[in-house]
Amino acid sequence: MNNLLDALLHAVVYAVTAGVLLLGAYYVLDLVTPGRLGQRLRGGADSDATPPSNSAGVVTAAWMISNALVLFTAIWTNGQTSLGVALLWTLAFGVLGIALNTVVFLAVEVLTPGQLREIVCAPGPVRPLAVVAAAASLSVAAIVCASIA
Question: Fewer CB atoms near the end CB (10 Å): N or C, the chain?
Fold first, then answer.
């Protein structure tokens, strides 16, 4: 019974930690894109409101999945160690994943013509550059996950 209670406690601690880091990841993406990302994702009901951006949705989804994969791998590979050690790995690699995603996002903007941040938030259909930014984010996750494992 103690093993079950310990496992449940660990699950709660990991879920809260990962949730905070994922919220932080979303906030960082919000900072590097123009305007309010939430408004770009939701769009508005009014005719004067900002129309939704499908490109922002694709990039945000990839960004969140990317960071969640890093957190998952850090937890999964360190689950047999003490909670403190596993939590430290989760925090360290979670922050690293967010930082590397930000660097790669900005590097894609520098290396491609146009303004990636503006293109990502443009209303309408998904733009090819948004798909490239999403793929770059998932690539970061694959590399960071491989370095953890």
Answer: N
